[in-house]
Amino acid sequence: MKTGFTRAILAAMLLALSPVAAAAAPTSAAAAPTSPAVLPAAPAAWGWPLSPRPAVLRAFDPPAKPWLSGHRGVDLRAAHDGAPVASPASGTVSFVGVVVDRPVVTVDHGNGLRSSFEPVESGLPAGAAVAAGDILGRVRPGHCGPDPCVHWGVRRGAEYLNPLAFVMDLRPSVLLPVLPDLRVLRDLRVLRVLRVLRMVPVLRDLEGSGTRAGKRPQAAAREGPPGQEMTMAGRPLLAYCRVAMLGSR
């Protein structure tokens, strides 16, 4: 009788513990894909051409086809007309002149990257080497109406790029999952075990009542349909364990 009672206790405790382990495993697996190692590399760090950090008056909006209209750069608000424009990165001045009716200065940064600024009046000659932060020229009025601004464009070969990608991190934000507190899982596991152990005195009373009624425990265990033999301790214990697990989920 003691052997059957002990087996029922152990079986119930295993049933109480198993859902916790099963629930904890998917959590750790789900957290793996959010590792920072799989994120793309951060863009190259350049400096802003205007100081203080300017507001963006018009964003980058490239055309779907090269011959269509669009905005192939960004318009940045300047503090005032005549504000200094700095080189965002080191390079070589490749062009200084007038395009249509606007003064333009272009810097070749190497690796096929070039920055162009307009309307910017510059006294630098073509071929002059500049470091990041060196003054290229000063903003002229007229590009953004009454607002002082400078148009900044970046190209790699014939492809226009978003200049903000070189001074800001434009990657989408990634929300990491909230991992469960392991102490909470531990407390739930302990609570389930305690619920099972709390039934031990009740089960012993049931066994005692069966013995006092004149039935031997071995005989009581054999009652019932064939294949469903179970001690009086086992039946209520397993049933209570199932209820306890459902109630704690």
What does this protein look like?
This protein is of the alpha+beta class and 249 residues long. The chain has a domain at 56-166: Glucose Permease (Domain IIA), CATH 2.70.70. Helices cover 32% and strands 22% of the residues. It is built from five helices and eleven strands, in the order H-E-E-E-E-E-E-E-E-E-E-E-H-H-H-H. Strands 1, 2, 4, 5, 6, 8, 10 and 11 form an eight-stranded antiparallel sheet that branches. A hairpin with a 2-residue loop joins strand 4 and strand 5. Helix 1 runs antiparallel to helix 2 and helix 1 packs parallel to helix 5 (234-247). The chain is rod-shaped and about 105 Å long.
Would you summarize the structure shown here?
The chain is α+β, with helices and mostly antiparallel strands.
Give descriptors for this structure:
eight-stranded antiparallel β-sheet; single chain; 5 helices; three-stranded antiparallel β-sheet; 249 residues; alpha+beta
The CATH superfamily of the domain at 56-166 is: Glucose Permease (Domain IIA)
Helix proportion of residues, in percent? 25-40%
Q: Distance between the terminal alpha carbons, to the nearest Å?
A: 32 Å
> What would you call the shape?
rod-shaped
Q: Main β-sheet: number of strands, strand sense, barrel status?
A: 8 strands, antiparallel
Q: Identify the CATH class of the domain at 56-166.
A: Mainly Beta
CATH topology of the domain at 56-166, what is it called? Glucose Permease (Domain IIA)
- The CATH architecture category of the domain at 56-166 equals Distorted Sandwich
Poorly predicted parts: 19-43, 219-224, 227-234
How many beta-strand runs?
Answer: 11
Structural Rg:
38 Å
Estimate the mean pLDDT confidence.
Answer: 73
Structural class designation: alpha+beta
* Estimated share of beta-strand residues: 15-25%
Summed up, the helix count is: 5
Task: Give helix and strand order, one letter per element, not per position.
Answer: HEEEEEEEEEEEHHHH
